[in-house]
Amino acid sequence: MTLFEKIIARTIPADIVAEEEDWIAFRDIAPQAPTHLLIVPKKPIPRITQTTAEDQMILGRLLLAAVKVAEIEHLTESGFRIVINNGKEGGEAVPHLHLHLLGGRQMEWPPG
Predict the structure, then answer these.
(1) Omega within 30 of 0 (cis) for the link into 95
(2) What class does CATH assign to 3-103?
(3) Is 23 helix (H, G, I), strand (E, B) or coil?
(4) Where are the beta strands (DSSP E) in 30-90?
(5) What is the pLDDT along the chain (112 residues), one digit of tens a residue?
(6) Residue 27: alpha-carbon gap to chain centroid
(7) Which residues 6+ apart lie within 8 Å of 71 measured at CB?
(8) 98 catalytic per annotation
(9) CA distance 70 to 7
(10) What is the pTM for the complete model shown?
(11) Contact criterion met (CB below 8 Å) for 9 and 75
(12) Residue tagged active-site, from 36, 96, 98, 100
């Protein structure tokens, strides 16, 4: 069971900001920006490269969830960044698909 599955199951605590039937959003414990939240599907999908056509709906819902969470956090006017890491070299730390929502400061480019 991944760390995120434990948060979804409420067996470990998290600072939950929003939740719907198929996703949950909570604050990152090691924030990389003043606002750094994770948006996680409740379905355990290891990474974006392991999604299938069956996952189209949840992928779209995760992006809509990011907008909803950005609104809750008052980031829609100033701007924000959405990041998905994939694999070791992509920075993936937890093998459960998730979006990072970053904001509250000027984002730099290139990001890595």
Answers:
(1) no
(2) alpha beta
(3) strand
(4) 35-41, 80-83
(5) 999 999 999 999 999 999 999 999 999 999 999 999 999 999 999 999 999 999 999 999 999 999 999 999 999 999 999 999 999 999 999 999 999 999 999 999 988 6
(6) 9
(7) none
(8) yes
(9) 21
(10) 0.95
(11) no
(12) 98
